[in-house]
Amino acid sequence: MNKKTPIYNTYKSIYTDRQKKSDNRFSFKVADCLNDMMKVVAIRSAVFLSEQECPYHEEFEGNDFCAMHIIGFVGKEPVACLRIRFFADFAKFERLAVRHEYRHSTLVFKLVRASIELARKKGYEHIYGHVQDRVVNFWKRLGGKPIENRDELVFSDFNYTEMLLITDPHPERLSLESNPYVLIRAEGSWDEIGVLEQSKTREVSSPLKKLRVA
């Protein structure tokens, strides 16, 4: 029996070039190339720079290339994204953005759940975030709780609440006990055979390796 594709990695398993343009299913993937990062920038620019009039240097503040980005699609159209930064004992969710035409769908819930599942797979049970006060109830519905007795948090023209979501351990979380080939697979694609595993079967190309074999 084939293993079920993780929710955070459904895009490439569902959509191919032959897929009908009218297909409107939700799917998700980890940003893994420059083109994906352009999708992230486009979505966040539409939401934060255009709608919320956030200054460019505040939105793109220097953390995007030390973070993981999850992209949500409707069909083949990128419409939502969320950024995750990983610290010693917690994952921090940031920059959740959904294009306005999909804001009243279930996409945002599924994107956050996909991101939670990915963080759990990486071994994180504590998920922390700065949540605009107007959407605290949304995060409560997903299991988040405000952190009490904290100082006021204000930036980029909004008031924020610090929230923490505590999850159960993932039964197959990545660790030092994991197969080393799994740990060198592409981020988010830990359930698929990776390119470095496939390199075992190709013809030797390294001059140094040829020398050692000889």
Quick structural overview:
The chain is α+β, with helices and mostly antiparallel strands. It contains eight helices and eight strands.
Structure description:
It is a single chain. The chain has eight helices and eight strands, in the order αβααβββαβαβββααα. It is of the alpha+beta class. The protein has two domains: 7-173, Aminopeptidase; 179-214, no CATH class. Strands 1, 2, 3, 4, 5, 6, 7 and 8 form an eight-stranded mixed beta sheet that branches.
Write the layout of secondary structure elements.
Elements: H1 11-14, E1 26-30, H2 34-51, H3 56-59, E2 68-74, E3 77-86, E4 91-98, H4 107-121, E5 126-132, H5 136-141, E6 145-146, E7 153-155, E8 158-166, H6 180-183, H7 195-198, H8 207-213
Parallel strand pairs: 4-5
Antiparallel strand pairs: 1-2, 2-3, 3-4, 5-8, 6-8, 7-8
Q: Going by CATH, what is the homologous superfamily of the largest domain?
A: Gcn5-related N-acetyltransferase (GNAT)
Sheet having the most strands: 8 strands, mixed
The overall pLDDT average reads 90
What separation lies between the terminal Cα atoms? 43 Å
**What gross morphology would you assign?**
globular
Q: What's the β-strand tally? A: 8
What percent strand? Answer: 15-25%
Tally of distinct domains:
2
CATH class bucket of the largest domain: Alpha Beta
- What is the CATH architecture assignment of the largest domain? 3-Layer(aba) Sandwich
CATH topology group of the largest domain: Aminopeptidase
Q: In sequence order, what are the helices and strands, one letter per element? A: HEHHEEEHEHEEEHHH
- Poorly predicted ranges (pLDDT <50, ≥5 residues)? none
Query: SS-based structural class?
Result: alpha+beta
Number of helix segments?
8
Radius of gyration: 20 Å
